[in-house]
Amino acid sequence: MNLNLHPSEIQGVSLESMAKEFGLPLYVYDGEKIVNQIRSIQNAFSEVPLKIKYATKALSNISILKLIRKAGAGIDAVSIEEVKLGMLAGFDPTEIMYTPSGVSFSEVQEAVELGVMVNLDSIPLMRQFGEQYGNRVPACIRINPHILAGGNAKISVGHKHSKFGISIEQLPEILATVSSYDLNIVGLHVHTGSDILDAEIFLKGATILFDAAKDFPNLQFIDCGGGFKVAYKDGDPATDMKEVGEKVSKAFLDFCDQYGRSLELWLEPGKFLVSESGYFLVEANVVKETPTITFVGVDSGLNHLIRPMLYDAFHDVYNLNNPAGNENKYHVVGYICETDTLAADRVLPEVRQGDILVIKNAGAYGYSMASNYNSRLRPAEVLVWEGKAHLIRKRESFEDLVKNQVSLEF
To answer: What is the tens place of the pLDDT at every residue in 291-331?
Structure first.
């Protein structure tokens, strides 16, 4: 086991001390890592006018959003609630892209009233938008590029049968709708999926937008989405951001020359910014041996981290308290009344009751997808910034669980 890959502290603050101070289970985020990820994109795309729009759905804690704003990024929101969270975190409406999918038009109207950019992802929505606003409100159009890419079918969103965006094959209908309602289209958007490794996939999606852009004379930006892959274990490949930056930037600058003026390039990283910053700390409640498997039952489950069950996602796990113990093979499982295997067939230093296990890559789609399933309470969140641990979300209480319920008398 490479102990360098399994830290006992973040910015000099020990994980064990945070477990004692804030309790378990616990989400911990390394703020320095988030800022460094933003810087890596900015550096890779330094030759173009770049705007980063963080995909809020990955991790929407207000303090995380504030940190991302401090680092110079905007946000991409997929719900009106995420728009409001962004504004509460201090983002100006002009720094927010709102990309809904199948929402009621009243939510779109609310977004317009708040002053954020709306990303139109269906022709019926384009028509409604046109009837309501004509050319008075600028908007973006989300194109479905018919590119099958991503680490899992559930996060491949740019293929021909995806619900997201307007098919590139419907470009004539898009243009007719723009003309009919005199829509003021200032941006084109594409997002192919998540966990994409190949720079050529990003380039292919961008090229589709470049080709479509010639029919939109008033563009201000091209939005190439996100989906950059991070490493989940030792030796796992990750997106070569330098290569992506070089290839996409060159193609973008060539496109701007052909278009006749300079535009902005927008990117929407989510997981890439926050995944590796996150550590989820859980306690071993029981070590249960059977004739075939040794289970480690922990004080969490799919209610706190659903990705392993929903996406078959791999999360590296290590034993914080006994790193030098004799190694054994375990199934790390949750306390939910369903099969909720967090990690299968993992070789770990001996796990004892009371040991703290650390689940890595827990920054993206961990807390943001957490629930109260089995009427369990959601954990606290802590951000480590400038060498100090800051509580950024209190642990839920039983009172929180029942406060919105209405009890009838029978």
So the answer is: 999 999 999 999 999 999 998 999 999 999 999 999 999 99
Say how far apart CA 303 and CA 367 lie, in whole Å. Answer: 9
The b/e string for 81-114 (b: 16+ C-beta within 10 A; e otherwise) is ebbebbbebebebebbbbbbbebeeebbbbbbee
Instruction: Give the integer Cα–Cα distance in Å for 346 and 328.
Output: 8
**What residue ranges do the domains of the chain occupy?**
3-28+275-402, 99-269
The pTM is what?
0.94
Cα 240 to chain centroid, rounded: 18
137-155, pLDDT tens digit by residue? 999 999 998 875 444 444 4
Does residue 44 register a pLDDT over 60?
yes
**CATH code for the part of the protein at 99-269:** 3.20.20.10
CATH 3.30.43.10 correct for 3-28+275-402? no
d(CA 167, CA 173): 10
Ramachandran category for residue 401: left, alpha or beta (phi over 0 → left; psi -120 to 50 → alpha): alpha
CA angle, residues 193, 195, 198, in degrees to nearest 5:
90
Return the axis-axis angle of helices 241-259 and 199-213, rounded to nearest 10°.
10
- Report how far Cα 258 is from the mean position of its chain's Cα atoms: 33
Buried b (16+ CB within 10 A) or exposed e, 326-345: eeeebbbbbbbeeebebbee
Backbone angles phi, psi at 186, to 5 degrees: -110, -5
Q: For residue 233, what are its two tokens?
A: 């274990």
> Under a CB-based contact definition with an 8 Å cutoff, are residues 101 and 120 in contact?
no
Contacts of 106 (CB under 8 A, 6+ apart): none
Give Rg (Cα) of the chain.
23
Q: Give 174: exposed, middle or buried? Use CB within 10 Å, 0-12, 13-18, 19+.
A: buried
Query: Among this protein's residues, is 224 annotated catalytic?
Result: no
Q: What are the tens digits of pLDDT across the range 362-374? A: 999 999 999 999 9
pLDDT digits (tens, 9 = 90+) for 169-183: 999 999 999 999 999
Distance of CA 365 to the CA centre of its chain: 6
Concatenating the DSSP letter of every residue in 89-123 gives: TT--GGGEEE--SS--HHHHHHHHHHTPEEEE-SH
Instruction: Fill in the DSSP letter of residue 325.
Output: S
Neighbours of 396 (CB within 10 A): 15
